[in-house]
């Protein structure tokens, strides 16, 4: 026991300047564990075919013991997972972590991209009306790629239309992506362990002045993870359809288009960019540029800090101001996306486009 305690001290000692916001990563990790556990049980009962996909989901809720609770935890858990991940990423941006932790930030963005893929494929497996048209709309974006766009779409769908082959392929992708996600999370933790956390003040303390992560900070993480657990419990047991859509309780019918098509809330900003730019190819190009900028944010931040000659502390105010403008843009763009879906209006499209250009101009200045 003494040897184990000594190893924990040597290997997991960290700075005492970590604020409670640093527990968001631990909350995201707990959400990942919950999703893996509930997803494995649900996968044992799910049948990936056009005829049985929707019926098997319904059978899970009605016939499987605690099946309704499992599906509710898994579905609402994805939303709470994204809440923790987005809050964790915002905390990193506010504290300037991408500037000093380039590799950790880059792997973290890859984790987020894999999580987006896992949630999209998982939402498609329900094979209700909204799931079907989500597959049609989102996958059709690849047709903007010159020459090979249509071939890529046929590869994803397994044909020229969405069918049982598509559901089967998405089920395989949805099963593989979480395993890759776990590997990326391990790499993320290893890289973080190599450079250690600096805290909000950006100070790197000598090892003799650090505190032991176990049990002090670990106990705080366990206490803070109760907050998303309460949110998940409230959604899963009292308001199961908070993040759902009524059309997804109707079996998929390719001959009927829903009157209101919208993605899950965590994809609203990206869908809003596409809706705000009338030209399909241009909207996808803007989306790609945004993702590339997000991945390379750490490297560009390091270069910028050296260029102004102020070091990491000099770039902190600029980073936080940019994050505030970015959050404002994301929230308004999501709201505009919903308004445009409810009532098609060129006015709202112009507002979204103008707001995006205005925020980009402010951030660049």
What are the salient characteristics of this protein?
mainly alpha; 72% helix; disordered C terminus; 16 helices; two-stranded antiparallel sheet; Cytochrome Bc1 Complex, Chain C; globular; 365 residues
Order of helices and strands: HEHHHHHHHHEHHHHHHH
The termini sit apart by 57 Å
Percent range of helical residues: over 70%
Percentage of residues in DSSP E strands: under 5%
Coarse shape: globular
**What CATH architecture label of the largest domain applies?**
Up-down Bundle
Number of helices: 16
Q: Mean of residue pLDDT?
A: 77
Contiguous uncertain segments of 5+ residues: 301-315, 343-347, 361-365
Largest sheet: spatial strand order: 1-2
- Helix and strand content put the structural class at mainly alpha
User: What is the CATH fold-level name of the largest domain?
Assistant: Cytochrome Bc1 Complex, Chain C
- Largest sheet geometry: 2 strands, antiparallel
The total domain count is: 2
Give the class-level CATH name of the largest domain.
Answer: Mainly Alpha
By CATH, the superfamily of the largest domain comes out as Cytochrome Bc1 Complex, Chain C
Number of E strands: 2
Q: In angstroms, what is the radius of gyration?
A: 22 Å
Task: Describe the model.
This protein is mostly helical and 365 residues long. It has 2 domains: 252 residues, Cytochrome Bc1 Complex, Chain C; 99 residues, no CATH class. The protein is 72% helix and 1% strand. The chain has a two-stranded antiparallel sheet with strand order 1-2. Helix 4 runs antiparallel to helix 11. The protein starts with a helix and ends with a helix.
């Amino acid at each position: 026991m003494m040897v184990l305690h000594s190893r924990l001290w040597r290997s997991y000692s960290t700075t005492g300047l970590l604020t409670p916001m640093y527990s968001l990563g631990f909350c995201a990790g707990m959400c990942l564990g919950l999703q893996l556990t509930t997803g494995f049980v649900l996968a044992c009962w799910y049948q990936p075919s056009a005829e049985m996909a929707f019926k098997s989901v319904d059978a899970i809720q009605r016939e499987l013991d605690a099946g309704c609770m499992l599906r509710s935890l898994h579905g609402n858990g994805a939303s709470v997972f994204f809440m923790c991940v987005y809050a964790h990423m915002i905390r990193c941006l506010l504290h300037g972590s991408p500037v000093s932790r380039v590799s950790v930030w880059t792997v973290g963005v890859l984790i987020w991209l894999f999580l987006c893929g896992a949630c999209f494929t998982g939402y498609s497996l329900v094979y209700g009306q909204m799931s079907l048209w989500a597959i049609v709309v989102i996958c059709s974006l690849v047709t903007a790629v010159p020459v090979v766009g249509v071939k890529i779409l046929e590869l994803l769908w397994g044909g020229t239309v969405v069918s049982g082959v598509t559901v089967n392929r998405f089920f395989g992708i949805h099963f593989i992506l979480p395993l890759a996600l776990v590997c990326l999370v391990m790499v993320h933790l290893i890289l973080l362990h190599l450079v250690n956390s600096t805290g909000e003040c950006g100070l790197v303390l000598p090892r003799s002045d650090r505190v032991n992560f176990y049990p002090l900070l670990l106990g705080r993480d366990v206490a803070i993870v109760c907050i998303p657990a309460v949110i998940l419990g409230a959604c899963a047991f009292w308001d199961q359809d908070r993040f759902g859509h009524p059309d997804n309780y109707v079996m998929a019918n390719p001959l009927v288009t829903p009157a209101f098509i919208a993605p899950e809330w965590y994809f609203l900003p990206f869908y809003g960019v596409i809706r705000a730019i009338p030209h399909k190819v241009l909207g996808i190009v803007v989306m790609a540029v945004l993702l590339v900028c997000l991945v390379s944010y750490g490297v560009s931040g390091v270069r910028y800090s050296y260029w102004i000659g102020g070091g990491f502390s000099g770039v902190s105010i600029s980073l936080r101001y940019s994050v505030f403008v970015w959050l404002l843009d994301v929230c308004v763009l999501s709201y505009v996306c919903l308004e445009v879906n409810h009532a098609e209006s060129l006015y709202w499209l112009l507002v979204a486009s103008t707001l995006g250009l205005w925020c980009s101009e402010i951030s660049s200045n």
